[in-house]
Write the structure tokens for this entry.
Amino acid sequence: MKMVNAALVIGALILCFPAGASADAFDKSVEVEGQFFFQWTYNISGYEEWDVDRYDNNDAQEFELTRTYLGAIARIAPSLTARILLDSKRETTEDGEGKSMAFLKYAYLDGNVADWLHLRAGQLQTPWVSFLNWAYGYRFITKPFSDRYGFNASSDMGLAALGYFPKGYGSYFLGVYNGEGFKAGEINSGKAGHIRVSVAPIQAVESMKQLSLSGHFRYAKPDPDLETVDTQYGGLLHYRYRINENLKLNFGFEYEIREVQPFRDATSDQIVNSMGYSMFMDFDFYRGLALFARYDFLDPNTKNSEEKQIGYQDEITWINAGLGYRLAKSTRLAVDYQRTAYTQEVADEDGDLVVKKPDQIIGVHVEFKF
């Protein structure tokens, strides 16, 4: 089967070379790309002294390089490109220490058959998270909902086909992946299939061209021996419109549902259903200045209840708001406030149950890319 898959990929990429093309008629090129996210954060939560797990975090402040990307895009034939991208971030180890870790984010070939069909093979983008990053636009502050809460990874090893519908009416992206994500190797024969379809139906009205509705579906069998099934589906309503040189509006609403069946004969109570949604908005209003806001809600287990006391009070909400400024085409700044609220109840110093106090953070964020 692996030989058949390899033959299909090679055959498809051969189609990307136009008949009669020669090395003399084509100039190869390599474009270096880079991006980093830097931030300063300050904890203003004001935890109580009896909250021993968090009390020492009061007034904690930190400079941090949250992400560093460095790579290259090589045009190696008229319709064939190769891309490689390294990803570095700080990970917290089991002993609580922070260490910089490097990962291979992308390493793939892209064959441009036509505007409506690109073929990719290697370690590449997944259909949904890559699209959300584009729609959200503030990845240097945090990940979009589906990635932030672990619904799926942003890249993985696999094969994909993607393209655009004619006359701006939308796009599609479908792929087959290992399923473990870009930070882990393949551990078994399980695979994941993932598809996204986006439609922008109102192309006759200038102000409505970028109103789109997108949906995605992911089906994975991460452990074939146990017959584990991981299913996710959701959608995004998105609108973007540039009113003039200074004014631009961007809005999105994402909704996600996930169901994990841990083994073949799992009962209804053993199947874990998660759901959540995210609303985001940003408005450019004056010479690079922009207001932005986002609200997330996550329920990691929708089937638990107060009576069962299984994961009860596990819902969280996250609010982010601030002011952004585009210093240059390659550089953006943001000053923001973040608040994570919980429904969980904890025992205070008198033994009484009280709602867990929210985390509150203020910060300054910088994005630079080339």
In short: Residues 30-369 form a domain with the Porin fold (CATH 2.40.160.10). The radius of gyration is 23 Å.
